[in-house]
Protein 1
Amino acid sequence: MAATCSSSFPSLLPLPKARIPKFSFYSSFTTSQSNFFTVTSRQNLINGDFVNNIRTPLTLLKAQASSVNGEKQPMLPPFNVLITGSSKGIGYALAKEFLKAGDSVIICSRGGERVESAVQSLRAEFGDLLVWGTKCDVRDGKDVKNLVAFAQEKLKYIDIWINNAGSNAYSYKPLAESSDEDLIEVVTTNTLGLMICCREAMKLMLNQPRGGHIFNIDGAGSDGRPTPRFAAYGATKRSVVHLTKSLQAELQMQDVKNVVVHNLSPGMVTTDLLMSGATTKQAKFFINVLAEPAEVLSRLK
């Protein structure tokens, strides 16, 4: 199995096949009677650039629709990007790749010291003018509202919001051995936290003339396959797909065309979240981990 990127793009206007980026995905197109256009994409990350899979389609769709209040404003790169759970792991690697592309980035995590350390490291490489960070617990609605206010203060608007924060409080043991605290941690972070972030991101973007794109990162279990020994985690990731599709349908019903919700699958990667309780060798044997976070986001030969 190769690490893959799977993303669902409800297009603003139907794109002719010739306009699909040439780094291109394996693509399939479906159109409903209401012209709700979807592009379902899968790409082998070993041969591609993960962040360009996000940036390039958005550039193609940049100025195709008006916002909920009738105003119109193109979305042009460089983009303003917000990534939750981004002080380490794949979130941090994503932040670096967007910064390399010239975008401005907001990072956040529930650990304030980790955020400060991550910001310092990124600024040492990319300068002080492109990256900011703040403490945010996605399970807390007030924290997420404060995150939005912080982003507006620093960048005025957000083009790309990536919901990457996740938790696997208990690792590699049966559900019967988990505690109430374990289950509450997993479900409130991965499900409640995602819902809160989507709600606040949508409220933000619906009031931006340029709209915006929300990417929900799924994980093991999102495709419906069983996830023994981390069953709660898999169940929450299955819910990511349902939430994304439901939000897409809500926006369609409201005839909103410039705020779009996507599902993003970076593949199973070695992160602290998955590695707790197992060595890298053990984890790769049992769950077929195929890449380190930075490897998922770079061109590999």
Note: Confidence is low (pLDDT under 50) at residues 1-48, 60-70, 268-301.
Protein 2
Amino acid sequence: MALTVPLDVCMERLSLKIRALRGAGQASGIAAPPPVPRFYFATAAGDQQQLQAFVQTAAWLLQLCGRKQQQLLSLQTLPSPQALQLLVGEARATLSQPPEAQPGELQQGHGQAVCTLLDQLAEKAMQQLKFQWQSPQPSSTRIEQAQRYLHLEVTAEPYTEEDAEQQMQASDAALLEEADRLEQQGMFELQLDEGDSTWQLDLMLLKEDTAKLQSLASEALQAMNTLQQEQVAEDLQALRAHEDHLNEHCRPQLAELQALNQHLEALKQEEATQQLACQQAQETAQQLNQEVQQKKKQLQVLTSKVQDTQALTRMQEAVGKLDGELSDMAVHIGLLQHHMHSLQAPPATHSPVGIAA
């Protein structure tokens, strides 16, 4: 299992390897991809071309490793997911210990897995092209200049023989490489000539003037503080006077505003009272409605009872009429019976007695 190199170290190393491989690739007739910034693959670039740049760079390194050129050239026309899948297969076939990447890490086009894969492919390409690293052999004069300048930048103290002995214990090549790297990054420019010692005189004069400068700075700071305090006091007094003027000018408006606030409070109280009265009226109306409903129910019951009484009265009247008719019929029947009896009785004989009677 391969060790994980820190991301900044990996990108620094990858940048140097790609710079060295560009010349070898051009000599072999293999076109290099467009150059990108040093830490381009370390973090997200915020565009959609980062994944395409990663695929192009990895395909170029695989060509330098000896993989089939025609198959890798097809990556330029494939969509990014398919090209990435083909690229991962080629990288696993090329590297003895490919980096372990979680699913989706390489699809982002940046990050630790992307930088590690490119670094391993670049190392494999350099081995394929038989690159050999050589330590630089700088001149002693430039080493001494770099030592003096770096010591001045770090300590800002005079350079002594003891410091020189301590600095000579470090690797001359490593020190010069660090100086070159800082110079390339624009942190400083190494412009000292051999035997130039004017900076020591400037440093001595600067140290002599340091106490005077500190005293002047302290006096200037005290004067600034005094002026600032006086200015603050004047501004505060002016603000207070302006506040008094505003209070005097706005006093009638404030009194009117207070009266309006009191009137508003009275209106609010009156509104609350009216709302309470309205609520009570609503409750009373609800009670009246309930009573009306009850009265309606009672009225319906009475109406039904009245309707029943009227029907009974009509029945009684009808019965009375029937009784009258029955009485008339009985009288009529009696008359008929009497008439029938009179018709059925024998005729009476006329006797003198009877006549006399």
Note: Residues 7-128 form one domain.
